[in-house]
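User: Could you walk me through two proteins back to back? I'd like the raw sequence and the structure tokens for each, with a short line separating them so I can tell where one ends and the next begins.

Assistant: Of course. Protein one, sequence then structure:
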Amino acid sequence: MHKIVTLALASMIAVSGATAALATEYTKGVVKKIDLKAGKVTIIHDELVNLEMPAMTMVFKTIDTAMLDKMKEGENIEFIADRVKGKLTVTELK
């Protein structure tokens, strides 16, 4: 019985460690332009590790248009971007 409990605990630790490794990191960027009408933001960003993209300037949609109200042109931000329905999208904003 002791071996089963030990094995179960070891498995849980391994799974939780793997989950933490998959967590997406925030990327630093600067807001270049906000297009409220189109619901898009242009960001000069560092490398997007999760999307395997080098640093560059790109246009993103936002998961929620209310995010655009929290941004200002020229502002430094930290964000998470992902592909949502095939479109590059800001999904989280610090």
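----
Protein two, same layout:
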Amino acid sequence: GWRITEINLYSLAEGLPDMKHIAMGLVKPNVIEGKHPSPVFLLSLKLIVDTVYMSLIGTVLPIPITFVLSVLGARNLMSGNWLTRGIYAISRSIMNLLRSIEVIIIAVMLTIAVGIGPFAGVLALAIHGIGAQGKLYSEAIEDIDPGPVEAITATGANWIQKVLYGVLPQVTPQFIAFTMYRWDINVRMATVIGLVGGGGIGYTLYQYINTLQWREAGTAIWLIAAAVILMDWASALVREKYA
């Protein structure tokens, strides 16, 4: 692996001095001009807010589809006969396919379909999230206590009633925790898909780097880091409460 990936520590040592411009941009970001926030800082602040909202919509939008697929992709709920087992296999295959395609590739395709901008980024996050969240949801359903479901079945409840009253109350705390965790991940993903025209701060950061505006790039990077840290903290609090 070392040979195939062409790892060369000598080249790394030679290239490190060239990183000084980037390091200086991080040390001295363009935040203040005189006594006021710089235009770069204000623009980056607006774009990081846009990025957080992109990740929020990209997380919430696929939840109904994700829930349906996760229920149909839970083995303990779909093991009755050949038809339900077939539906289970199809649901699992759809989720595996959607989460196996990297979100940045989906974003590239969607920028061609709907144009450059945050809409393409939101759709990319939502499509990838169906597969990623669906896997977590379905595994949570498979780990439920079968007792309440069996008790509801004994009363003559149909399949939908079993899901609503036997399954959903048990998995709701985990679903909330998983959804918050996914939002945390999507904040980071949203900054990356911006590099390919998916909107948000990533696209502007890419322009700063291409034009060698290292102080401006440093401002954007610090704001991205602050947003990710805050989201990670908030996500951890929610997951600790509900998990």
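The mean pLDDT is 87.

Let me know if you want the two compared in more detail.
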